[in-house]
């Protein structure tokens, strides 16, 4: 929408046929070709905030993910063996870019779910404030098999060219990794006679996984 707003203010756009010539003409006329603004999606006024009824958005972005993980009960390390994602992005304008956005958002969420734990000192300082201590996702943390599929769905979307926003929604799908890790820990606990509920806070760091697995070393620590 900002692009449309900018183009309306270019006085020479009607005289030049090609975009490159329009840009060149704008440059010599000192016409700014960038603009900042906000876009508010048009929607029917049928949402009642007080009653929580109606439709608050033009559309919803849906996605589903299935992840398979492996954990080391002795060290607490985890590895995502495979992740399969199916994402509804409407009618994708550029599938290559959209898939890249999905992969990037998922990996960002993966860090939030497994390694990016902020440690604070009593005086409010962040203790782990370097890449060595604050573990962000790296190449080794990416799923060994990473499959992303765009759901074929170009109907019932009233947005630009039937497309949907895809920048951040896939981040939430990383919960599949966290839950897979918890399921793996549960199986490890069964082998040593532990059953029932156990607490696993997010992110599932190496320390969290190691302590949750439970064994004689953990018992002696307690």
UniProtKB/TrEMBL annotation:
Aldehyde oxidase/xanthine dehydrogenase second molybdopterin binding domain ranges (all copies): 16-143
Domain of life of the source: Eukaryota
Gene3D superfamilies assigned to the protein according to its UniProt record, in alphabetical order: Aldehyde oxidase/xanthine dehydrogenase, molybdopterin binding domain (3.30.365.10)
Leader peptide range in chain numbering: none
Transmembrane segments annotated in the record for this chain: none
One Gene Ontology molecular-function label: oxidoreductase activity
Record-given protein name: Aldehyde oxidase/xanthine dehydrogenase second molybdopterin binding domain-containing protein
